[in-house]
Amino acid sequence: MENNLPVNIREYQELAKKALPKMHFDYINGGAEDEHTLRENIAAYGRIVLRPRFLVDVSNIDMSTNLLGYDMPSPIMVAPTGAHKLANPEGEVATARAAASCNSVMVLSFSSSCKIEEVASSCNAIRFYQLYVFKNRDISETLIRRAESYGFKAIVLTVDTPVLGRREADIRNKMIVPWNENLEGLLSFDDLDTTDGSKLEKYSRETLDPSLSWKDVEWLKSISSLPILLKGIVTGEDARRAVEAGVAGVIVSNHGARQLDYAPATISALEEVVKAVAGAVPVLVDGGVRRGTDVLKALALGARAVMVGRPVLYGLAARGEAGARHVLEMLNWELEVAMALCGCRSIAGITRDRVQTEGDRIR
Ligand code: FNR
């Protein structure tokens, strides 16, 4: 096996499928309802072509960049995804070590299957903390305090999940999420009937606050001094509102197509958001990034950085910490090659004219 490592994310996806029970693979791999947006997140990248420039000295490629004042060796980050113990018994601790070994910023999910404290003490790296707002605000506040005291550098507030999207594979499989140890003593998992749906769905319905609104961004600012990024923005209108609300960054995301089906592919929504934000704060994007060329396309369209969700979980499921690390290394390598072949020596050199979108072709 070690002599025969996968050479791309798709091969890791196949290995993950073989390694995991169907229920767990479906949970990681699947999307909402018709999975139209799930397919589009990837297909839309395929419709953007690159415009390479040659006869540029590319003997030194500098992929380093900066986010919220933190230097990063590359613009590829780890998206928050829940329940890593479904992929590997070491869970988020293994992912955090993998991310740290590549100096990639990891966003730890609120639905982490390992404790915040355990993840923080397992490696020394920049980490952000992703937040869901529960009906019981005390629970969210308690977890923010714990993340703050363990050195997490920013809060990523996920705004696209006032209720859980309909993930039909999970409903059919009666998917059971592992117990989130971070909620020990704060919430009980008992008494959730699973007869007509996934336990995940029942759990979300009882905990997530569907009244989540812009007022809660104010609430969050009032209880924490950490910078706040809003994750799940896909329109210029919400992006402008986010800037007005004083957030530190915007993440163009459709939750890996697990929430609203027929939401736009994130790479298609990116430019609208970038234009609306007009440089006031950094814009990140996630969803469907599977290649270094995808990263280059996102950066050319104005993203400061990209986050990857499923690819890291595929690596984790297939080969544990080493697999998650290899996925990040491969993506970084692919980005380096793509930059060289496009004649981009630095991240700043990845300009809008390096890509041609469908919109450009119509104009
Ligand atoms: C997610 N995502 C997610 N987002 C979030 O804000 N909190 C969470 O707990 C989770 N959990 C989660 C679990 C799994 C299994 C997946 C696949 C995704 C969404 C995630 O942060 C990100 O937006 C997408 O995964 C990006 O799309 P790709 O890279 O998976 O295509």
TrEMBL record:
EC main group:
oxidoreductase
Where is the protein found, in the record's own terms?
Answer: Peroxisome
UniProt KW Membrane keyword: no
GO CC terms in record: peroxisome
Give GO terms for biological process: defense response to bacterium; hydrogen peroxide biosynthetic process
The family note in this entry says: Belongs to the FMN-dependent alpha-hydroxy acid dehydrogenase family.
Q: Which SMART domains match?
A: IMPDH
Residue sites binding FMN per the record: 80-82, 109, 130, 158, 231, 253, 258, 286-290, 309-310
Domain FMN hydroxy acid dehydrogenase, chain residue ranges per copy: 1-360
Assigned EC number: 1.1.3.15
Q: Please state what the protein is called.
A: (S)-2-hydroxy-acid oxidase
Lineage, opening ranks: Eukaryota, Viridiplantae, Streptophyta, Embryophyta, Tracheophyta
Q: Which UniProt keywords apply?
A: Flavoprotein, FMN, Oxidoreductase, Peroxisome
The entry's active site is 255
What domain of life does the native source organism fall in?
A: Eukaryota
Which residues make up the binding site for glyoxylate? 27, 132, 167, 255
What gene is this protein a product of?
LOC100841307
Q: Report the main location listed first in the record.
A: other
Q: Name one GO molecular function term.
A: FMN binding
Required cofactor(s) = FMN
